[in-house]
Amino acid sequence: MYWDKAHECMDRQQLRELQSQRLVETVRRVYHNVPYYRQRMQEMGLVPEDIKGVEDLHKLPFTTKQDLRDNYPYGTFAVPLSEIVRVHASSGTTGKPIVVGYTRKDIITWSELMARTLVCGGTTKDSVIQIAYGYGLFTGGLGVHYGAERIGASVIPISGGNTKRQIMIMKDFGTTVLACTPSYALHIAETMEEMGIKREEIKLQYGIFGAEPWSEGMRREIESKFQISAIDIYGLSEVIGPGVASECQYKCGLHIFEDHFIPEIVDPETGEVLPEGETGELVITTITKEGLPVIRYRTRDISALNYQPCPCGRTHVRMKKVLGRTDDMIVVRGVNVFPSQIESILMEIGQTEPHYLLVVDRVNNLDVLEVWVEVSNKLFSDEVRKLEELNRKITNEIQSTLGLSVRVKLVEPKTIERSEGKARRVIDRRKL
Amino acid sequence: MIQISVFLENKKGKLAEVTKVLAEHDIDMCAISIADTTNFGILRIIVDNPEKALEVLRQAGYTVNTTEVLAVEVPDRPGGLHKVLDILSKGDISVEYLYSFVRRPAERALILFKVDDLKAAKEMLKKEEISVLTEDDVNGLGTK
After folding, report:
1. Which residues of B touch A388 (CB under 8 A)?
2. A330-428 is classed CATH 3.40.50.300
C-alpha cells in the first residue's frame, strides 16, 4: 500500500537527479537568505556553484543543534517571518528550545510525508486514529494529525496523558490505530491490564510509534500485549518533525523519504562520511523545506543505511532502527553505554516489561553504574535463591555486553517513574 | 496449601504497607515468614482467603505469586518436627525452606514446607499418619 507511488517507488537514478537538482536549489537559497549559512560557507571558501549535485554534499559544513540554538529563535529561517504560518519548538530541557518554522508549502509537504508514513504503517481512510502524541509546540501531535486528515482517516486528537481516559476512548470510539511514543504505548497496555480490560473489547490494529529509540524486544512486547502490528516512525523537529522515515509492513528498516531528505552516516567523532552499511551518526539535509532548511544536520541518532531493494517495492533507502542517541549515551569509566543495550538484555532474559533505570554516580572518584530493574510477576519467585540467580544473571549479561561492572538492584513494581512522553532511562548523579 | 509470596524491597516501612492492605481487606493471616537479603525480601504468608489476598495485593501494585506448600500439623513436643523431617529425608525430598507456628491451646505446631516434590512428600507423610492440612483447614487455624 502506497500513498504516493510515483515518488515512493521512483527509479533510483531519477531520484538521484531529483535530489541533485533540489540540493543545488536549496544551497543557493540558504546562501542568499540565511546569513549563518553564507558565513559558514564563506569560511570554508565555498560558493553555491561549487555544489553541483549530491556528490558534492560532503563539501558542505555540518549544522548542529548548538548552531540552531545560537541563532535562537529565528536566525536560521530562510524566509521572512511573514511567510511563516507555524512554529514548533523542541522541548528545550537544556536551556533555550530550538525553534522551527513552516511556510504554507512546508505544512503541505509535511502533511504529504505524514500521509505516506501513516499509509506505510497500515492507516487508511477507514481508520480511526487516536493521536496520543503531545499536541502543542512538540511536532508529534500536529504532525500525525495533518497526515491522518490528509488520508481522510477519522482523527481523535486526544494528545498525551490521562491514560485511563485514553483507554476508555480507545474502547468506546473504536480506535484502530494508536499513535504515541512506544514507552507510552506500553504504559497504556499495562494500565489496560490493571483495569481488567480485555483485548476483545478494543479494535486496535496498528500502532505508529516513534519519538524515542526502542528495541525489537519492546516491539514484541507491545505487539503481544495489544495484538497489533507496531510500526516504527522517525523524525525530528529540526528536520521537519515526524515524517522523515517510516517502516513498511516488512519492518526491516525505515524508508527515508529521499525525494525530500538526503541522509548520510558519519563517524560521530571525526565527522567523516562512512561507507554504506556502517553504523554511525545519521546526518540529514533537507531539500524541499522553505522555512527552515537544514544542511547536513547532525541528528545525534545512531543508525546505518541500507540501499538494497525492499520487498515492499519502495526504492527509498532504509535506515536501521535507531540504536541510541549520541547524547543519550553515557560514558561510564570510559565505556559508551546506551540505554537500549540494557533494554535488549532485559528483554532476552525474562521477556520482562522493560522498566529499568540506569543510575550513574561517582563514589571515591570512581564511576558506579547501578541498573534498577522492576521485578514483574513473571520474574518473581518465592525462593531467595532464584531471585539471587536472576540478579546474577542480569549482572553477568550486562557486564559481558558492556565490559563494565555494574550493580543490579531488583526493585518493586512502579518504583521507576512512568512517562507519558519520552521515557527517562538515565539518572546521572555525577557532578561532572 | 496455597502460600502467598510478595516481593519487598528491604526498606523501612515496606512490610507495614503490605499488612495495611491485608488488614483493610479483612484478610486473616495464619502464618508469616520473611526471607531477607541485603537488597530485598520475600514475604510468605498463609491466609484465610488466598485468591482475595492475591487480587488486592496485585491491585495495590505488588509483585505477588502463589506457591503450593506442604502444611503439616505436629504435636508441640520434642521430636515433633524431627519425625516429619526424617520421613522427608529418607524419602529423598529436599526442603527449600520451612517456617512454623505453634498454636495454643491446641498445643500443636503448624509447619509449612516448600519441597521439591510436593506430591511424593504428601503421600509419604500420609502413610506415616502425619496430618497434612489443606486450604479447608485454614479457617480452623490461627487463634480461632
Report:
1. 37
2. no
